[in-house]
Design goal:
By secondary structure, the protein is mainly alpha-helical. It has helices at about 25-40, 45-55, 60-75, 85-90, and strands at about 5-10, 15-20.
Length: about 100
């Protein structure tokens, strides 16, 4: 019978068990992850774990979700200005 060893971290009476996992990633994605990890002075494993945790546990609130849906629908397209005077006129005359 083969035994497995897992890394554990205990934080304030909570034990977080880490299990090894293997994934096949595109070469360009892996290189980008490595580059970002180096830039943040972190290990690749720590960086990938933090990115995944952030994605999984930091869901936007309802206001943000509504704003995202509005932006994606195209109902509120951004006006492009060719000069600052026109932009300020629109801002000052908005009511």
């Amino acid at each position: 019978m083969q035994s497995k060893t897992f890394n554990c971290i205990t934080l304030m009476a909570t034990t977080i068990i880490r299990k090894p996992a293997s994934f096949r990633l595109r070469a360009d994605l892996l290189e980008r992850l490595r580059s970002n990890a180096v830039r943040e002075n972190r290990t690749l494993n720590n960086y990938v774990e933090s990115v995944l945790l952030d994605y999984i546990y930091n869901e936007p609130n309802e206001t943000t979700k509504a704003a995202i849906m509005e932006a994606m629908s195209g109902r509120n397209p951004n006006k492009v200005y060719d000069n600052v005077d026109n932009m300020f006129n629109d801002i000052l005359n908005e009511e």
